[in-house]
Amino acid sequence: MHLARESWTDADAADTTLAVLPVGSTEQHGPHDPLGTDVLTAEAVAEAGADRYTDPVVVAPAIPVGIAEEHRRFSGTLWTSESTFRDYVRDVVGSLAAHGWDRVVVVNGHGGNIAALKEVTARIVRHDDAYAVPFTWFDEVGEHTSDMGHAGPLETSMLRNTDPETVHDDRLEAAAADGADGWGEWQGRVNLAVDSDEFTDNGVVGDPRESSADLGEELLDRSSEALCDLFDAVRDRDPTSRTD
Amino acid sequence: MHLARESWTDADAADTTLAVLPVGSTEQHGPHDPLGTDVLTAEAVAEAGADRYTDPVVVAPAIPVGIAEEHRRFSGTLWTSESTFRDYVRDVVGSLAAHGWDRVVVVNGHGGNIAALKEVTARIVRHDDAYAVPFTWFDEVGEHTSDMGHAGPLETSMLRNTDPETVHDDRLEAAAADGADGWGEWQGRVNLAVDSDEFTDNGVVGDPRESSADLGEELLDRSSEALCDLFDAVRDRDPTSRTD
Amino acid sequence: MHLARESWTDADAADTTLAVLPVGSTEQHGPHDPLGTDVLTAEAVAEAGADRYTDPVVVAPAIPVGIAEEHRRFSGTLWTSESTFRDYVRDVVGSLAAHGWDRVVVVNGHGGNIAALKEVTARIVRHDDAYAVPFTWFDEVGEHTSDMGHAGPLETSMLRNTDPETVHDDRLEAAAADGADGWGEWQGRVNLAVDSDEFTDNGVVGDPRESSADLGEELLDRSSEALCDLFDAVRDRDPTSRTD
Amino acid sequence: MHLARESWTDADAADTTLAVLPVGSTEQHGPHDPLGTDVLTAEAVAEAGADRYTDPVVVAPAIPVGIAEEHRRFSGTLWTSESTFRDYVRDVVGSLAAHGWDRVVVVNGHGGNIAALKEVTARIVRHDDAYAVPFTWFDEVGEHTSDMGHAGPLETSMLRNTDPETVHDDRLEAAAADGADGWGEWQGRVNLAVDSDEFTDNGVVGDPRESSADLGEELLDRSSEALCDLFDAVRDRDPTSRTD
Amino acid sequence: MHLARESWTDADAADTTLAVLPVGSTEQHGPHDPLGTDVLTAEAVAEAGADRYTDPVVVAPAIPVGIAEEHRRFSGTLWTSESTFRDYVRDVVGSLAAHGWDRVVVVNGHGGNIAALKEVTARIVRHDDAYAVPFTWFDEVGEHTSDMGHAGPLETSMLRNTDPETVHDDRLEAAAADGADGWGEWQGRVNLAVDSDEFTDNGVVGDPRESSADLGEELLDRSSEALCDLFDAVRDRDPTSRTD
Amino acid sequence: MHLARESWTDADAADTTLAVLPVGSTEQHGPHDPLGTDVLTAEAVAEAGADRYTDPVVVAPAIPVGIAEEHRRFSGTLWTSESTFRDYVRDVVGSLAAHGWDRVVVVNGHGGNIAALKEVTARIVRHDDAYAVPFTWFDEVGEHTSDMGHAGPLETSMLRNTDPETVHDDRLEAAAADGADGWGEWQGRVNLAVDSDEFTDNGVVGDPRESSADLGEELLDRSSEALCDLFDAVRDRDPTSRTD
């Protein structure tokens, strides 16, 4: 049930309370991965999860621009303020819920969105007429999660599996050479940097040479399976906490 | 230069000040056209215009949800508040401009967005560091414009040309039969209705049986040509009015 | 029932649900018409409509400053932001409705207010406890509407009928000579200008020499009659759409 | 220089930095005084002051609705939220200043506006490009100030001088009989009441029988003289505090 | 019941609807009094009132920064915007009320907060589920109130009684010598100054040499007694005005 | 340099650019720890760090109420909305910076504040005239960090060292018995709960019986040492990223 491609009458016939809202970012992903990486991967996971789930799940169109001001000095990065992003997500979830799809999983492909999604979904649960939770796919791939980086092995693998034409294989060496080993400039547990160009020259963190289409297939499989488990939980959740 | 599918380094190499931002809506389009009609058509026109233009034009990802509360009682319609939508567009245009693409045409596929886009682009021109104008494709197809309706001949034709699999040809008769002849419930020049279900049972205005793929091709051709003419004007515009 | 000139006890005795709220603008109207043109005309129409209507209609005081930033470079033009204007109108309508006058016609004399009034009245109908519609007088004068312009024959005629001392008859020649033929600088259907001084030197659009007090009387008659027809429709409207 | 009745060209020729912005309220003033009392009196004082001043003073149109929710249970009272009112005043003052009239006296006729005007004018002085101060006329009439009340001798006298047809002389006895002696319900220096109907049955505080047209003339004379003294001070003020 | 120092279980056992929220400011108080004067005194009065009251009263932690931009040019002065302050107070009162402590006295130690507290508490009473009133201690000390000034005899006395180590006795002479006699620069009843450094060199208004610990004890006694009288009134108040 | 207890003249003499702003929460901490735990510990760390640092550090008063709606069903928990909290912090940091103390460490004692502080300090660095970073003390105590919980061994130890009278030693057994082992109700990496009472009956997570005053002393020592290291880094940081 990919909402954007169905008529309203078919959408109306969907017998479900479950919806997924893919959320990404349009932002630099090194010289080798496309600016749309976080949208493409979020959409892929959302669709794979909805496809493999036993019951119907409404798939909303992906929100393409998120919280990415930290990459502002890399060309092509787009962003909104945090509050604009939260408002946009809240309004969209509210309109999904207005049609009875009031169990909403926000499938996220961008680390920079995580805190804002946690804030806005909690606000929705407490104060609106919906139950919503965020799901960030690269947190749900088991031991691979620790290899995330930025435009590193995980994201590059996902794209090589689903959108291989968007990856410049011939730039992986350069991407790795000029990238950073870790995210941020740290003093203890405090990151002194607010923008990514303070610690990475080409925007890369991690080694994308470790990517492969096979790994991408595995990542998609694991994350979409985890998403299905979450669908079960969300569908059955008694949101007794929703008391306002 | 489809931003979402390019790397930031390739985006950085684009020698242009021009960008297009497609803006649509996810909302009912009768029993025969998809909920994503306004996004699909806006994207098609934006891409066709950018492709045929002599100079490079940056194509931003489409904003999929707009101002559509008027269709709220038709399943699958998504919407944000007007102010959320304006904020989202303003932020995205601002980030485009931050990279030097500060001549932005917002290519719109939805009538409900027009007033908000006029307001926000004027605000951008007067108070931000960018020059932006809205362009609504179905206003730029000559004598056909008067046939617009909603999910009527123009939109259905566009889809039959670019995304034919999303149109239910077998529902055109029913679509026409239960649709309305005009938009709104009028007392003089005042529309007494605020929601579309007050005057159309299935969401249709106009007769989609008059659509064809050929007409769609013509509409795409004419609107993208008009868009190229606008690129010329926007590129050369001396925004002397930008004085704040 | 001119609210500002009645006591609350007399207002309380009014047996009606109908109210009109005149809304104008204080902005340049050429060298010949006063800056208050849009308020004076909106008030005149609102009062004439209320006077000729069979049932009592509460007339609220006119809101004198609206959305007129486009005229900012002409001395004396006053404006608020669009959101401030919408908030002000919404609050005033809300307080009218609190007294039982919850069928409100916003009588408008300024083109720049139209979109904002459409947005805010729809919001009121959908989310507040009132039914409100905008009514722009120069859209309700039949074939004359196409002669509107700015400080042109229609507005000048209205003033020559109701407030002749505010019109400088001896400047009509100069007003016409230095005015523009049309509103905006157009590329296709897109207006490239955001401020009126980009296309008119003295602020005039149209030929005010075609004005007359007789025409003004006719315009007032036609628009106030249309307003009365709207009162009927608004009074009897079943706002079933008001479901939030 | 009554802005609303002048052309922009004449306004442009005004050689001054001084402007007055009358601000009132539309709210209950007992059974005898009109709902528009606070606007009528503010306008009268602003105009009298501008007329008697040696140099030209731009008179802006009066803002008719202010902060009056405390009278919400008396029919005909209109109000906006405090923040809407502040925004409206700030925007209007900003547009006056844009034309070079950046010394603005906000002439106020309503006690409920005082705190909001102090806040917003200080914000304007500190953060915008203008110097603005509030002036509440009934605070500037010497020993009479202590007789203010609400719809009491001062306001009623002012109206009997400038707008006598709006006062119901035959209701003064009843107005006095059912009014309250003082404003509020006090515990120490704390007013326990938030709405005026908690302490006055007909909305009156003070004895309007003590009013007269002669007293009104004196009040207008004294307050407009005080306003002229303020014009001197505001014109000559070195706003060194304006450092942001 | 000092909330910050009690466990939630003990707070839960409190059998009361009454709470006090101390509100101060961190701002210059001359060379002799500490920047925290307004918080220290507000806390002292709140605690003394709660201690002497017959029934339990919940004491919330003090809000330390308020509306003090007027002192911005004196080092160490902290401030928030008026709207931020109001939002903060409203949210905190709302959370107190959520636990059943919905009769809230906001005990204030700073003149600059008074108008904002009046606005926000009225809003709470009218629109939220709580009854709240502001109480400014130096307005409740009888004939002493007229000696208030700024960092003058009253505040200095309070501190010499409760926090003597924060007062520099050896600077009282200098404080008095360089202070101002009154607050503001007046033209009639209008204060032309928006910042305190426009009329006082060291921030002092009034003569702190007239202070004493004995006077401080008396002030604390009188204000806390007045606060207890207010607790009675607030506890018993029938907030029939709360109708929204 | 505890700002609240110093005069403005002494604050003015401080030769430093460094300031700390303690930020806590007033919220349930089980039956044994006080509601003010997060403020008390944040203040203790901030003061200890400032005291041990070689150069002067301005200590601002602690912000006592933060983001704690998740504990709303436990009596005494106070909270503001996330946006109110961010606004409050931003305004206070802005006023610190106005005095030249534009290197600000926000010392935080509450997990629920972390995301909001990251957002607001990044906004300050990018758009305001200050450099600010958040520092959460329990993230800076080495291997102990993993024992954090809520009202568990770390917080209880801190209080037993600095404010032992606020800890109910006789309730530690009950606190541990009815507490939860972990925070949240998890499906994969998604927490299905938005409020803490969904997974803990008495508000406790972790075993406070493992606390001791000695451990508290060590925690204070380690965290204040880490804070001093951060002071060095913040003082010397070239905020080249601050380009807006």
Automatic annotation (TrEMBL), chains A, B, C, D, E, F:
Tree of life domain: Archaea
Stored Pfam families: Creatininase
Cofactor(s) needed for function: Zn(2+)
Swiss-Prot/TrEMBL GO biological process terms: riboflavin biosynthetic process
InterPro entries: Creatininase-like_sf (IPR024087), Creatininase/forma_Hydrolase (IPR003785)
UniProt keywords, alphabetically: Hydrolase, Metal-binding, Zinc
SUPFAM superfamilies assigned to the protein according to its UniProt record, in alphabetical order: Creatininase (SSF102215)
GO molecular function terms noted in the UniProt entry: hydrolase activity, acting on carbon-nitrogen (but not peptide) bonds, in linear amides; metal ion binding
Protein's name according to its UniProt entry: Creatininase
Organism: Halobellus salinus
